[in-house]
Amino acid sequence: MTAPRAPFLTIAEAGRLIATKRLSPVELAKELLARIEAIDPQLNSYLLVTERQALTAARAAERAVMAGRRTPLLGIPVAYKDIYETAGVRTTAQSRILADNVPEHDAETIRRLGAEGAVMLGKLATHEFAIGGPAFDLPWPPARNPWDTRRFTGGSSSGSGAAVAAGLALGALGSDTGGSIRLPAAYCGIAGIRPTPGLVSRRGVIPLAPSLDTAGPMAWTAMDCAILLDALAGHDPLDPASVPGPPGSYASAVAAPIRGLRVGVLRRFYEHDVPAAPEMLQMMSHAAATLRGLGCRVEDASLPSVQEYNAVGRVIISAEAYALHEATLKTRLADYSRVFRVRVLAGALIRAADYIAAQRRRADLIAATAQAFGRFDVLITAPTAGTPPLLTEQRPDDGFSRPLLTTVANVAAVPSMVVCGGFTPAGLPLGLEIIGPAWGDATVLRVGHHFEQAAETRTRRPEL
């Protein structure tokens, strides 16, 4: 079997090659930059390519390698959703409102990856302020799915999903308020984890709904997500929402066997609450069988309905997003995209009593979810009802008109990741969602890693 081309290396593979001086960080960065120039006009995954900064960082990484430094991310080319503040580099949230915004400081997550020697290739497409949905009335076009460029990437970490899948970055950062890491991971056939809230600093990440926002990694494999999470996780005393997490390395933990783990299948979620397409139902059946074959104890599980979690999530997101943008909406309404206005202006109608009721109900749902983890180590479900829809089918009120399976984990305040579960006969990816208890991120990553290995979904890339 031939070795993969540099843009299709995993972070783990590239890190080993760089550490043994068989791969030059400079040549790796140059090959990725060339591929971005050639391929990205089809995808629009990048809002800004930082070629000069990338080559400077790659040369510094190469010098560090020659001097004997070893870190898993040294010389690894990554890119960041354009809500992560980057010192001296434009950060727009894909909005006219911030079109000329150049931060003075890096987000804490960017600082941590830079300290580990990661190489920033650029800033990635998002939906406007991480909620707007695909918009065609902004200065930048929406990202497209590399498996079929007519199709939606999922959002709002749209560029992150597309870039990783297409080999335009080895890893990326996304954010997740109601599914914005996991939906692009599902539709683009990659891995992405929404960590336990507080595990990864949100300082310097443009907020959407602080009660539900999380920052996290996206990459080709669960192992790569674990490598990134090792660098990202850790208490940030300047972030009031940051909480010291459990000690230990996520990357070291993923290889531990999963035999004996108790896996609960949230079958009602995707068979009744959000009825899935036949190909998704078949994939979920195969996923359960795969985990059973790995020695897991697989049984059906139940939680409150997806609609209950979504009702709570929608009230909180709408109210908090409107509150953050209220002053600007009053003075620059027309500068926002139509999709953003449809999704956020409704927050003006939410009463304080409604918001408080949603937060109280959220506490009940957190408790109900935690109770399920007395019986199970992880829960699995479909993250979407099926394959990525066409971009032209996206509605401005999406997320209000149809509940999202992914919002469950946000409201429940638990870690959740999506890995590629398989492909349809037409070659479109299908995601598998793995949900764990609070601070069970390592177990979630372990299950994702072993499933990927057994299902052999990581050998197939989109053709562009």
Description:
- With 464 residues, this protein is an alpha/beta fold.
- The protein is built from 15 helices and eleven strands.
- An eleven-stranded mixed sheet has the order 1-3-2-4-6-5-10-11-9-7-8, with helices on both faces.
- Strand 2, helix 4 and strand 3 form a beta-alpha-beta unit.
- The protein is globular and about 60 Å long.
- The model has no long low-confidence stretch (mean pLDDT 97).
Beta fraction: 5-15%
Query: What's the number of extended β-strand segments?
Result: 11
Average pLDDT, to the nearest integer? 97
Strand order of the largest sheet: 1-3-2-4-6-5-10-11-9-7-8
Biggest sheet layout: 11 strands, mixed
Shape: globular
Order of helices and strands: HHEHEHEHEHEEHHEHHEHHHEHEEH
CATH architecture: Alpha-Beta Complex
Q: In terms of per-residue confidence, which ranges show pLDDT below 50 for 5 or more consecutive residues?
A: none
Helix content: 25-40%
Please count the helical segments: 15
Q: Please report the distance between the alpha carbons of the first and last residues.
A: 22 Å
The CATH C-level name is Alpha Beta
- Fill in the CATH topology: Amidase signature (AS) enzymes
* CATH superfamily placement: Amidase signature (AS) domain
Tally of separate domains: 1
Properties at a glance:
464 residues, alpha/beta, Amidase signature (AS) enzymes, 15 helices
